[in-house]
Amino acid sequence: MARMDSYVEYTLELLEPLGPVQPRAMFGGWGLYYGGRMFGLIIEDRLYLKTDDTTRSTFESAGGEPFVYDAGKGRKPVTMSYWTPPPDASDDAHALLPWARRAVEAASRAAQKKPAAKKKSAPAKKTAAKKKASR
User: What does pTM read for this prediction?
Assistant: First the structure.
């Protein structure tokens, strides 16, 4: 396991009021998990929190910035659904807590959508199988 740096440790201290947050090293950064779901990302000493259609505009209007990475030569940059909390929340556990809760809620909503998407694709497979069988 990768060794946590001081920024990751500090961020975990700020997030203590949220509850048990588990960090996992990934892709040169850290994923932050709560209840088994990834709700945060730390890349290059910067915290990003999960957003969705419900919360993205709140992060944006508060001055947050999206996590964008370079997809490689000749490709457009990719914008992820993780945004920074507002600047005034980056060093204050009390101010960060509502933003972290929004991220946990967004991660929960995303997890609830996944099984529904899988169920929708199942009938299409059955239909294709029926067409094949009727040939």
Answer: 0.80
